[in-house]
């Protein structure tokens, strides 16, 4: 009996040690040595996942990314790269499954608004930056890309939402569109502008979408793009949610409730013909199309950021980034270094690709973001990275749990608010209850 007990105790101790080692392998990414050098006599096989957005002519985007990777492998001949393009709608689920198996890709290129924190198997790319390289980005962008004070991902572009204004109609109404384009504007200034642009027979504002794009834009311009922190704690208060509801009700009072509940199919045509002075919110792709189409008709529209909530200017800019991972069965420091070299290379090679194919702002070290549109100032507020929210647009908590995105849970209450079925206060109550169900208990 005593011998059996001893055996059981030994087995328990061994089992506990194994669990401890496994846990350590999964939760100690900072123990990786970033100072090792790649051995040219070894061959490194790097797996890369690239999120594939739903865009026209996706094959040209794929070719551009593959060309960038080919340039890297031509230089680093001991490194072979396998690139997998994952449709954006399936990326989160596939990455979660791969991480659960301990086999995430070595490098992830996320071409949409992402998060900084991907969990335990992520390796902070900031470990591989030299000297003051991390100081090339404004603090707001560093905050979006950092986890526990360390830069986790490197930016390859920036998403944004904007309004386009007709400068001719602004000037005719005695408005200085350039001031708002340079410095941003509050929602009060936005509504005052719409009132001055309009006359007794027409409203000179056209909304392209009051569904999720408006909800996400309002949230980002409050400085807190997501309702949760990394640990799942609910950040948004009833006051903040009611402020969102008040904005929708002011839009309804300005345009009429029916304008919010029915799609304005002629909005773009009316803006391009000079009937509408302000249109939005616009995605990067739509903003580029509007600007280029208007320029062909002799009009250079002013690009204005989303109005901000509160007294501190905040612009709806979200970093798009490249991330680095290791596997649960660690493949060695030199392998991770090889993957890091690829990620760092892509952070410099892919911005022009994303600017060209996705119309994103391209990061330019030491400067403001640059948007590939003709005749647009790089000093405009919508492209001012220093005004971006100093927080990620998504958190680890939101995706690690496998729950639906928070905006989907909030959408029924948002729809009822837009339809006039809920007051701003009732919306805040319903939204807070829905978000509380997703938050950490």
Structural overview:
This protein is an alpha/beta fold and 441 residues long. It folds into two domains: 39-158 and 317-387, 3-Layer(aba) Sandwich (D-Maltodextrin-Binding Protein, domain 2), CATH 3.40.190.10; 162-315 and 403-438, D-Maltodextrin-Binding Protein, domain 2, CATH 3.40.190. It has helices at 2-27, 58-75, 88-100, 139-145, 167-172, 177-183, 187-197, 212-220, 238-255, 257-261, 267-272, 284-296, 333-349, 351-358, 396-400, 406-418, 424-438, and strands at 44-52, 79-87, 107-109, 122-123, 146-147, 150-151, 154-160, 162-165, 205-207, 278-282, 302-305, 317-325. Strand 5 and strand 6 (150-151) form a beta hairpin. It is globular.
Average pLDDT figure: 86
Beta fraction: 5-15%
CA-atom Rg in angstroms:
24 Å
Shape: globular
Structural class computed from helices and strand pairing = alpha/beta
CATH architecture of the largest domain: 3-Layer(aba) Sandwich
Poorly predicted sequence stretches spanning 5 or more consecutive residues: 5-30, 365-376
Total domain count = 2
Topology pattern, helix = H, strand = E: HEHEHEEHEEEEHHHEHHHHEHEEHHHHH
Helical content stands at: 40-55%
Number of strands: 12
Number of helices: 17
CATH topology call of the largest domain: D-Maltodextrin-Binding Protein, domain 2
